[in-house]
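Dock pyridoxal-5'-phosphate; give full complex structure.
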Amino acid sequence: MLENNLKTVLEEISGGNNLGEKITLVGASKTMSAQDINRAIELGLTVVAENKVQEFREKTELISDKATQHFIGHLQTNKVKYLVGKVSLIQSVDSLRLAEEIDKTAFRRGVIQDILIEVNVGGELSKSGFDFSNAKENVLAINNGFKNVRVKGLMAMLPHVDDQNLIISLCQKMRALYDELKNMGLNFEYLSMGMSNDYKIAVKNGSNMIRLGRTIFGERNYGGNNGNI
Ligand SMILES: *Cc1c(COP(=O)(O)O)cnc(C)c1O
């Protein structure tokens, strides 16, 4: 099942997004065992990501170094020390304070930490991320103010709604912001947008990085053993 799932997605995205850009597939591996994650890596997955620091710490040493590791979940400042220099991309920077803490830690460790800025494009109370209305000024503040982080682009969580036109318009809004900032000279490469429910729409509307969990690994079983693979 894992093999077919992965093959299908890799084939689907092999032609790139609507702008002809290469699409990076990130495996969202929460609740999956290191063994299952490594099987996916053997089958061609090149980036894996956790959304909880605790789970990242439990698995990180067990993951094959053929893949790079990202962090995609809400991050508290007191846990930054567990990630800086250990993941190649922190996708979920959602406050100035968090960016500042990542920058300070990176400085102390003598590294430059690549990050994405998370934007709450749907304006949902349940989600973190900068408000769309002030995202641009915050991206510029982080990009210009902190020398030990490198802002590589934007990340968005799209709302879970049936209204496809709404999803399309939010994707286009994110892409327009991404292009505006990129054209100002920022070192942008990634617009991380699209999960299992909405990645097909996202890659037709400017996303070049998708984060898939269930589409690759099957349904999650929070009760422990997952019988999907
Ligand atoms: C779990 C998760 C995903 C993937 O979700 P699926 O619906 O399983 O594809 C993507 N992004 C984040 C931040 C996640 O926590």
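Observed: The beta strands are 24-28, 47-50, 68-71, 89-93, 113-120, 130-131, 149-156, 190-193, 209-212.
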